[in-house]
User: What shape does this take?
Amino acid sequence: MRDRPRSFSGIFPILLPLADAIVRVRRRMRFVKPLVALVGLVLAPVLPAVAQTYTVIDLGTLGGDSSEAAAINSRGEVVGWSKNGVGQTRAFMYRAGAMADLGTLVGGTYSYATAINDRGQVIGYGGINADGPQFAERMSSFLWENGSMRPLSGFDERHLTTAAYGINGATGVAGAAATVSGVVQAYRWEGDVVTDVGLSPSNSSRSSSYGINDRGQIVGERDGRAFFWQNGQTLDLGTLPGDSSSRARAINVSDQIIGESTAANGTSRAFIWQGGAMVDLGTLPGDAASRASGINASGHVVGQSMAADGASRAVVWRNGSMSDLNTRVPTGAGWMLTTATAINDAGQISGTGLHDRRTRAFLLTPIKRAPTAPTSVILGPPTR
Assistant: This one.
């Protein structure tokens, strides 16, 4: 072990120059630190904004000349309806690259699939004639699961026809049922228990529920006005300024509601309702109308924008901006995407368009963006 110095006088000649050097460095650092900060600002990477693009898949048909998509789940499974080889309309599910016919209810000649949840359960409506060929076919809601389709039960004798439009992860279903007297009532179905929703104090003569989220909240239309229903309470969502009617089509888990508001002349505008207010989502430049059909957990909305002559283009609203989906798919593929019906949390979109002038269901999948080398903006010396 080295001996410790008996006094500090012997090391002062060493410490004093070192102290002077430290002071000089500190003085210089007063200028270096701001310079480093400035360089950090000047050389900060600038990431170019890149529009989201998609691959597009033609889902095909069940042997007929057309197909239309209604909904998509988180696994990218799409449901809708298609013509078969003899011209009948059949509900379908598209998964693993193939379209499957979901069949019909007993004695039925047609079926439409309208929604699917992440468990692969499908709901919709179709013809049923369980009483025999001598009786007329009527329309009934259905639930398809594990390869089998069955009518939703629990409706009483008042309900002549029913239709199902929305389903959540707990097999809660939203739809509409018509009574023998012609009254159409919005309903909630769960576990063969049917609850009337959307009724006004005067017993609304017409209401339908279209969307239901995993919290059991329901949205729809009651006597020409969009409504929100929860735990037996109904809220009228109103219309956009100057409009005469509205319809709510879907709701996410953040209570964001989408649909359309319509003027007296029939012109509709897509809306999103959030925070107690209805907001106009607008149209593509030059178009006259729009409709919103689906929303995901991130608040991204899909639908369509329509010109005055009725021509329609599929659109997506993200972060306050609307985009024509036709500009986000490969050119030269022969597609005209006319309407987008649903969007999942991965950003996949289902919809319908014209592929080589034939009506086809489609699936859009976001293309992952390759990392982009950041660019740096270097400022020169100030001019005098």
Notes: The chain has one helix and 30 strands. The longest helix spans residues 12-42.
